[in-house]
Amino acid sequence: MMASSLVLSHYQARPLLEARRRGERRARSSPDLGLSQVEVELEPAGARFPSGVLVRWEHVEEVASHETACFWADAEGVLHKVQRFSEVTNRLCALMPTARAPTLLLSGIPMHRIKGVDPWEDTRLKVRTLAPLRGRVLDTATGLGYTAIQAAATAREVVTVELDPAVLEVARLNPWSRPLFETPHIRQLVGDVAELVAEFEEAGFARIIHDPPAFRLAGELYSTAFYRHLHRILRPGGRLFHYVGDPHSPSGRRVTRGVVRRLREAGFRRVLQRPRAFGVVAYR
Protein backbone atom coordinates (compact mmCIF):
# COMPACT_ATOMS: atom_id res chain seq x y z
CA MET A 1 0.00 0.00 0.00
CA MET A 2 1.18 3.50 -0.84
CA ALA A 3 1.10 6.28 1.74
CA SER A 4 -2.07 8.37 1.51
CA SER A 5 -2.39 12.13 1.96
CA LEU A 6 -5.82 11.68 3.53
CA VAL A 7 -6.48 9.34 6.46
CA LEU A 8 -9.64 9.70 8.54
CA SER A 9 -11.40 8.24 11.56
CA HIS A 10 -14.64 9.02 13.35
CA TYR A 11 -12.84 11.79 15.22
CA GLN A 12 -12.46 13.67 11.91
CA ALA A 13 -15.69 12.57 10.20
CA ARG A 14 -18.23 13.45 12.88
CA PRO A 15 -17.43 17.21 13.02
CA LEU A 16 -17.95 17.37 9.24
CA LEU A 17 -21.38 15.78 9.53
CA GLU A 18 -22.33 18.07 12.42
CA ALA A 19 -21.30 21.16 10.44
CA ARG A 20 -23.30 19.93 7.45
CA ARG A 21 -26.41 19.47 9.61
CA ARG A 22 -26.02 23.06 10.81
CA GLY A 23 -26.04 24.19 7.20
CA GLU A 24 -22.43 25.41 7.22
CA ARG A 25 -20.36 25.53 4.03
CA ARG A 26 -16.97 25.03 5.65
CA ALA A 27 -15.61 23.12 8.62
CA ARG A 28 -12.29 22.48 10.32
CA SER A 29 -11.02 18.92 10.32
CA SER A 30 -7.80 16.94 10.10
CA PRO A 31 -6.57 15.08 7.01
CA ASP A 32 -3.99 13.13 9.04
CA LEU A 33 -5.61 11.75 12.19
CA GLY A 34 -5.17 14.92 14.23
CA LEU A 35 -1.62 15.95 13.32
CA SER A 36 -2.85 19.06 11.50
CA GLN A 37 -6.04 21.02 10.89
CA VAL A 38 -7.38 22.26 7.55
CA GLU A 39 -10.47 23.99 6.24
CA VAL A 40 -12.80 21.59 4.41
CA GLU A 41 -15.37 22.71 1.85
CA LEU A 42 -18.79 21.16 2.49
CA GLU A 43 -20.26 20.62 -0.96
CA PRO A 44 -23.61 19.02 -1.85
CA ALA A 45 -21.86 15.80 -2.91
CA GLY A 46 -19.38 15.55 -0.08
CA ALA A 47 -16.47 17.05 1.86
CA ARG A 48 -13.65 18.44 -0.27
CA PHE A 49 -10.21 18.63 1.35
CA PRO A 50 -7.52 21.15 0.31
CA SER A 51 -5.72 18.39 -1.61
CA GLY A 52 -8.72 18.35 -3.95
CA VAL A 53 -9.98 14.95 -2.81
CA LEU A 54 -13.78 14.81 -2.48
CA VAL A 55 -15.11 12.31 0.08
CA ARG A 56 -18.79 11.65 -0.61
CA TRP A 57 -21.18 12.06 2.27
CA GLU A 58 -22.12 8.38 2.36
CA HIS A 59 -18.42 7.58 2.86
CA VAL A 60 -18.06 10.23 5.57
CA GLU A 61 -21.03 8.63 7.35
CA GLU A 62 -19.42 5.20 7.07
CA VAL A 63 -16.22 6.47 8.69
CA ALA A 64 -18.23 8.15 11.46
CA SER A 65 -19.97 4.87 12.27
CA HIS A 66 -16.74 2.93 12.92
CA GLU A 67 -15.09 3.71 16.27
CA THR A 68 -12.29 1.14 15.92
CA ALA A 69 -11.20 1.70 12.32
CA CYS A 70 -9.21 4.24 10.30
CA PHE A 71 -9.72 4.80 6.57
CA TRP A 72 -7.41 6.00 3.80
CA ALA A 73 -8.68 7.78 0.72
CA ASP A 74 -7.45 7.10 -2.79
CA ALA A 75 -7.24 9.78 -5.48
CA GLU A 76 -10.93 9.35 -6.31
CA GLY A 77 -11.95 9.82 -2.68
CA VAL A 78 -12.90 6.16 -2.21
CA LEU A 79 -12.18 5.09 1.35
CA HIS A 80 -10.51 1.85 2.43
CA LYS A 81 -9.93 0.48 5.92
CA VAL A 82 -6.33 0.67 7.05
CA GLN A 83 -5.79 -3.04 7.55
CA ARG A 84 -3.89 -5.99 6.13
CA PHE A 85 -4.05 -9.73 6.69
CA SER A 86 -0.67 -11.12 7.67
CA GLU A 87 0.61 -14.19 5.87
CA VAL A 88 3.34 -14.43 8.50
CA THR A 89 1.15 -14.61 11.61
CA ASN A 90 -2.30 -15.32 10.11
CA ARG A 91 -3.59 -12.32 12.02
CA LEU A 92 -5.44 -9.22 10.88
CA CYS A 93 -3.37 -6.06 11.35
CA ALA A 94 -5.36 -2.84 11.55
CA LEU A 95 -5.13 0.78 12.64
CA MET A 96 -7.43 1.85 15.48
CA PRO A 97 -7.99 5.55 16.23
CA THR A 98 -7.72 7.23 19.60
CA ALA A 99 -8.17 10.89 20.50
CA ARG A 100 -4.47 11.33 19.66
CA ALA A 101 -2.15 8.82 17.95
CA PRO A 102 -3.75 5.58 16.70
CA THR A 103 -2.74 2.16 17.91
CA LEU A 104 -2.08 -1.09 16.09
CA LEU A 105 -4.60 -3.90 16.44
CA LEU A 106 -3.40 -7.48 16.05
CA SER A 107 -6.37 -9.83 15.92
CA GLY A 108 -8.35 -7.10 17.67
CA ILE A 109 -5.82 -6.64 20.52
CA PRO A 110 -4.37 -3.10 20.95
CA MET A 111 -0.58 -3.01 20.94
CA HIS A 112 -0.48 0.15 23.09
CA ARG A 113 -2.12 1.27 26.28
CA ILE A 114 -5.28 3.22 25.46
CA LYS A 115 -6.96 3.59 28.88
CA GLY A 116 -5.88 6.68 30.77
CA VAL A 117 -3.05 7.30 28.32
CA ASP A 118 -2.76 7.56 24.55
CA PRO A 119 -0.34 5.44 22.47
CA TRP A 120 2.10 8.31 21.88
CA GLU A 121 2.33 9.11 25.59
CA ASP A 122 2.52 5.39 26.38
CA THR A 123 5.59 5.22 24.17
CA ARG A 124 7.09 8.37 25.72
CA LEU A 125 6.86 6.83 29.19
CA LYS A 126 8.76 3.75 27.98
CA VAL A 127 11.47 5.69 26.19
CA ARG A 128 11.91 8.09 29.11
CA THR A 129 12.96 5.23 31.42
CA LEU A 130 16.24 5.05 29.47
CA ALA A 131 16.98 8.77 29.19
CA PRO A 132 19.32 10.06 28.05
CA LEU A 133 19.30 8.06 24.83
CA ARG A 134 22.67 8.43 23.14
CA GLY A 135 24.70 6.31 20.76
CA ARG A 136 23.03 3.30 19.15
CA VAL A 137 19.60 2.12 20.29
CA LEU A 138 17.91 -1.19 19.50
CA ASP A 139 14.11 -1.29 19.22
CA THR A 140 13.18 -4.97 19.13
CA ALA A 141 9.61 -4.58 17.84
CA THR A 142 8.90 -1.80 15.32
CA GLY A 143 5.10 -1.96 15.17
CA LEU A 144 3.92 1.52 14.14
CA GLY A 145 7.39 2.89 14.78
CA TYR A 146 6.56 5.22 17.66
CA THR A 147 9.45 3.89 19.79
CA ALA A 148 12.00 4.27 16.99
CA ILE A 149 10.72 7.76 16.13
CA GLN A 150 10.92 9.04 19.70
CA ALA A 151 14.28 7.39 20.37
CA ALA A 152 15.70 8.90 17.17
CA ALA A 153 15.12 12.39 18.56
CA THR A 154 18.39 12.09 20.54
CA ALA A 155 20.05 8.78 19.59
CA ARG A 156 22.85 8.61 17.02
CA GLU A 157 21.24 5.59 15.34
CA VAL A 158 18.14 3.50 15.99
CA VAL A 159 17.99 -0.09 14.70
CA THR A 160 14.40 -1.32 14.70
CA VAL A 161 13.21 -4.84 13.88
CA GLU A 162 9.76 -5.90 12.66
CA LEU A 163 8.72 -9.50 12.09
CA ASP A 164 5.69 -8.81 9.91
CA PRO A 165 5.72 -6.90 6.59
CA ALA A 166 1.93 -6.49 6.92
CA VAL A 167 2.46 -4.39 10.04
CA LEU A 168 4.82 -2.12 8.12
CA GLU A 169 2.23 -1.74 5.36
CA VAL A 170 -0.25 -0.51 7.95
CA ALA A 171 2.40 1.81 9.39
CA ARG A 172 3.01 3.34 5.95
CA LEU A 173 -0.60 4.54 5.90
CA ASN A 174 -0.44 5.95 9.43
CA PRO A 175 0.42 9.68 9.37
CA TRP A 176 1.95 9.41 12.85
CA SER A 177 4.41 6.81 11.51
CA ARG A 178 5.82 8.87 8.63
CA PRO A 179 9.10 9.75 10.42
CA LEU A 180 9.82 6.03 10.64
CA PHE A 181 10.31 5.99 6.86
CA GLU A 182 11.82 9.47 6.53
CA THR A 183 14.41 9.69 9.33
CA PRO A 184 17.86 8.84 7.92
CA HIS A 185 19.31 7.45 11.15
CA ILE A 186 16.48 4.96 11.70
CA ARG A 187 17.60 1.62 10.25
CA GLN A 188 14.77 -0.84 9.62
CA LEU A 189 15.22 -4.60 9.60
CA VAL A 190 12.51 -7.11 8.70
CA GLY A 191 12.78 -10.50 10.35
CA ASP A 192 12.48 -12.45 13.58
CA VAL A 193 14.38 -10.56 16.27
CA ALA A 194 14.76 -13.84 18.19
CA GLU A 195 17.00 -14.98 15.32
CA LEU A 196 18.53 -11.67 14.21
CA VAL A 197 19.75 -10.84 17.71
CA ALA A 198 22.40 -13.56 17.41
CA GLU A 199 23.95 -11.65 14.48
CA PHE A 200 24.35 -8.33 16.31
CA GLU A 201 27.83 -7.41 17.49
CA GLU A 202 28.79 -7.70 21.13
CA ALA A 203 28.32 -4.49 23.16
CA GLY A 204 26.95 -2.75 20.06
CA PHE A 205 24.08 -0.87 21.70
CA ALA A 206 23.92 1.73 24.45
CA ARG A 207 20.20 1.22 25.04
CA ILE A 208 17.67 -1.50 24.18
CA ILE A 209 13.90 -1.02 24.19
CA HIS A 210 12.14 -4.37 24.29
CA ASP A 211 8.38 -3.99 23.84
CA PRO A 212 7.27 -7.44 22.67
CA PRO A 213 3.74 -8.72 22.07
CA ALA A 214 2.05 -10.46 24.99
CA PHE A 215 3.77 -13.55 26.38
CA ARG A 216 1.10 -15.84 24.92
CA LEU A 217 1.82 -14.46 21.42
CA ALA A 218 5.63 -14.44 21.53
CA GLY A 219 6.95 -16.49 24.44
CA GLU A 220 10.40 -16.85 22.86
CA LEU A 221 10.95 -13.11 23.38
CA TYR A 222 10.66 -13.66 27.14
CA SER A 223 13.16 -16.53 27.36
CA THR A 224 16.46 -16.63 29.24
CA ALA A 225 18.24 -17.52 25.98
CA PHE A 226 16.91 -14.39 24.30
CA TYR A 227 17.78 -12.24 27.32
CA ARG A 228 21.36 -13.56 27.22
CA HIS A 229 21.66 -12.25 23.68
CA LEU A 230 20.33 -8.86 24.79
CA HIS A 231 22.89 -8.83 27.61
CA ARG A 232 25.68 -9.70 25.16
CA ILE A 233 24.87 -6.91 22.68
CA LEU A 234 24.35 -4.25 25.36
CA ARG A 235 27.49 -2.32 26.20
CA PRO A 236 28.77 -2.25 29.82
CA GLY A 237 26.85 0.43 31.68
CA GLY A 238 24.00 0.19 29.19
CA ARG A 239 20.34 -0.24 30.05
CA LEU A 240 17.41 -2.28 28.79
CA PHE A 241 13.72 -1.37 29.13
CA HIS A 242 11.39 -4.36 29.01
CA TYR A 243 7.61 -3.83 28.75
CA VAL A 244 5.70 -6.44 30.75
CA GLY A 245 2.14 -5.12 31.17
CA ASP A 246 0.01 -3.79 34.00
CA PRO A 247 2.00 -4.41 37.20
CA HIS A 248 -1.20 -4.29 39.26
CA SER A 249 -3.00 -7.07 37.38
CA PRO A 250 -2.56 -10.73 38.39
CA SER A 251 -1.12 -11.63 34.99
CA GLY A 252 1.14 -8.57 35.00
CA ARG A 253 2.56 -9.44 38.41
CA ARG A 254 3.15 -13.03 37.33
CA VAL A 255 4.88 -12.05 34.09
CA THR A 256 6.98 -9.43 35.87
CA ARG A 257 8.26 -11.96 38.42
CA GLY A 258 9.32 -14.33 35.66
CA VAL A 259 10.93 -11.57 33.59
CA VAL A 260 12.93 -10.24 36.54
CA ARG A 261 14.17 -13.72 37.46
CA ARG A 262 15.24 -14.60 33.91
CA LEU A 263 16.92 -11.23 33.31
CA ARG A 264 19.06 -11.83 36.38
CA GLU A 265 19.83 -15.36 35.20
CA ALA A 266 20.93 -13.86 31.89
CA GLY A 267 23.52 -11.70 33.65
CA PHE A 268 21.86 -8.33 34.23
CA ARG A 269 23.27 -7.03 37.50
CA ARG A 270 20.26 -4.93 38.56
CA VAL A 271 16.58 -5.02 37.55
CA LEU A 272 14.22 -2.29 38.75
CA GLN A 273 10.48 -2.02 38.21
CA ARG A 274 9.08 1.05 36.45
CA PRO A 275 5.34 0.79 37.10
CA ARG A 276 4.35 4.02 35.31
CA ALA A 277 5.83 2.62 32.11
CA PHE A 278 4.42 -0.90 32.79
CA GLY A 279 7.86 -2.43 32.65
CA VAL A 280 11.29 -2.96 34.16
CA VAL A 281 14.75 -1.51 33.54
CA ALA A 282 17.74 -3.84 33.60
CA TYR A 283 21.36 -2.69 33.91
CA ARG A 284 24.47 -4.28 32.49
Helix and strand topology:
Layout: E1 7-8, H1 10-21, E2 26-29, E3 38-42, E4 46-48, E5 54-56, H2 57-64, E6 71-73, E7 79-81, E8 83-85, E9 92-96, E10 103-106, E11 109-110, H3 119-128, E12 136-139, H4 146-151, E13 157-162, H5 165-172, H6 178-182, E14 186-190, H7 193-196, E15 205-210, H8 224-233, E16 234-243, H9 250-265, E17 270-274, E18 279-283
Parallel strand pairs: 12-13, 12-15, 13-14, 15-16
Antiparallel strand pairs: 1-6, 2-3, 3-4, 4-5, 6-7, 8-9, 9-10, 10-11, 16-18, 17-18
Helix pairs in contact: 1-2
Note down, in words, how this protein is organized.
The chain has 284 residues and is an alpha+beta fold. The chain has two domains: 7-81, no CATH class; 113-283, Rossmann fold (3-Layer(aba) Sandwich), CATH 3.40.50.150. It has helices at 10-21, 57-64, 119-128, 146-151, 165-172, 178-182, 193-196, 224-233, 250-265, and strands spanning 7-8, 26-29, 38-42, 46-48, 54-56, 71-73, 79-81, 83-85, 92-96, 103-106, 109-110, 136-139, 157-162, 186-190, 205-210, 234-243, 270-274, 279-283. Strand 9 (92-96) and strand 10 (103-106) form a beta hairpin. Helix 1 packs across helix 2 (57-64).
User: Low-confidence stretches at least 5 residues in length (pLDDT < 50)?
Assistant: none
Overall mean pLDDT score? 95
Order of SSEs: EHEEEEHEEEEEEHEHEHHEHEHEHEE
Order the strands across the largest sheet as they lie in space: 14-13-12-15-16-18-17
Second CATH tier, the architecture of the largest domain: 3-Layer(aba) Sandwich
Number of helices: 9
Number of domains: 2
- CATH T-level topology of the largest domain: Rossmann fold
Strand proportion, as a percent range, falls in 25-35%
Number of strands: 18
